[in-house]
Predict the structure of Enolase-phosphatase E1.
Amino acid sequence: MTEWVVLDIEGTLSATDQVLVTLYDYARPRLGPWIDEHGDDPAVREAVAQVRELSGVAGGTDELVAVLHGWMDADRKVTPLKTLQGLIWQRGYAEGDLVAEFFPDVVPALRKWHAEGVRLAVFSSGSVAGQVAFFAHTTDGDLTPLFEHHFDTANAGPKREASSYLKIASVLGAEDPGTITFYSDVPAELHAAAEAGWRTVGVAREGEPHGGDDFAPHRTAAAL
Ligand SMILES: CSCCC(=O)C(=O)COP(=O)(O)O
Ligand SMILES: [Mg+2]
């Protein structure tokens, strides 16, 4: 029977600081110029409309950027913010400004699973565009051929709701949800996946924000 492994990124595959410091610092000063220069891009137009709707802000770019920076400071994984960040990071990776790094156990584990026929997918708050760029430009080269699917809060839904995991299982074509294992560093995400019938592994990495969390009743591992 086909086995799937679905992976979270931040805190599970890569250090939280790589997202919250390196990537966020890269995106912060570029959000305003990106909105102004890509206003004709339907993805940007939709993201801006969503920011306005969610925040109630009616003003120009400066006010939108203040909202986006506020969400980043509070680490709110709001879909339109992730869309705009993902577009900026996509260009950053393509231009060589950014390179994705992983915890040392990650790439060997991904390659081993893939070689054994375990099918791999990603479910992250980071947009699919950002995810694909991230895995295409890593210190270990282009890892995109290892993954068959990418899911985010736009195409699957919130990571803390079981309905998102039910939707992903249906896209994967997994009739038995018990053939899917989800790895994450966030207990609430694991609870939602388990509610959808998935197997779950809490990744408790030393030094990471969730490294000391209580992952019960989920299986807990210090690495993949
Ligand atoms: C280029 S991938 C960026 C990942 C990201 O933006 C993020 O917020 C990570 O959240 P996760 O759901 O993977 O913990
Ligand atoms: Mg995470």
User: Anything to note?
Assistant: The CA atoms of residues 178 and 198 lie 5 Å apart.
